[in-house]
Amino acid sequence: MISSEQRHVRCGLHPSCFLAVALLLIPLAGCKVLAPIPIPVASQQIAPELVQSNDPQFEIGQPQPVIDGIGWVVGIPDKILLWDRRVDRHKISEETILATADYLEQNNLPHVKVRVNQYAPLKDWKRLTQNKTVAWPWRYTLGTLSVAGETILPGRIVGGDHFNPFTQTIHLYSDIPAVALHEAAHAKDFTRRTYQGTYAAAYLFVPLWHETLASQDVFAYLEQQQDVPAMIEANRILYPAYGTYVGGALGNFVPNYSLPIYYAAVIAGHANGRMLSQQLQ
Question: Are 89 and 175 contacting, i.e. CB atoms less than 8 angstroms apart?
């Protein structure tokens, strides 16, 4: 959910600038920015080869204490950023898996693979070749780069829950149901698109649009389920995560202030999510 660019923003501003920007953004807290709006699906574009596969929809990586321990440590900055030690935990509970499975079933997404703390680049390369819903020029350019990136920088070490539209695969490393549902919502969004490769390319330039749709769908889904505890958790996690994208987008307009804007947006997200959660209690 948090891009590598956002993790490594650099700025040499005085801390007072950061505080000033934070004071400007925090009063916006309490607004229901991510309104519960389900992603409308009129039709679905699904590659038959992915549905006909004999592989299970969920594949769980074998426990690797040393590797997973390294991954847990590498994920500490994101744990602090979202203030949740389950981020990049590399040990996923049954609760998170079942929540994801229920969402995929209710939204008719049988073709979506979920790799739970698993490193399987060869299998993902095969899925890339099978995913004919993405035009081949996109599959063998951006798609190839995406699988290569997952190979060179394995999420099992560097973390980073994400959905890869070129392989129709969700990669989970955090034990947070709201995060898993968010990635599944991306899958739902892409599946309704006719030009999925173009839509994936657009994410490189305007990720905030994709992230907004996915988060809004999660809140709509949880509201429909009348799952108040899950809604409280989603407020607490998805709002600061959304803040990373808002901060990144705003920082592009004023590069010299990118760092204070970025962290101020995250703080505002935390404040907003907690205020909304209090309304549900």
Answer: yes
Strands 169-172 and 113-116: parallel
Taking only the tens of pLDDT, the chain with its 281 residues reads 654 444 433 344 454 455 445 544 555 555 778 999 999 999 999 999 999 878 899 999 999 999 999 999 999 999 999 999 999 999 999 999 999 999 999 999 999 999 999 999 999 999 999 999 999 999 999 999 999 999 999 999 999 999 999 999 999 999 999 999 999 999 999 999 999 999 999 999 999 999 999 999 999 999 999 999 999 999 999 999 999 999 999 999 999 999 999 999 999 999 999 999 999 87
Q: How far, in Å, CA of 194 to CA of 205, rounded?
A: 19
Tokens 């700025």, residue?
Answer: 11
pTM for the model = 0.89
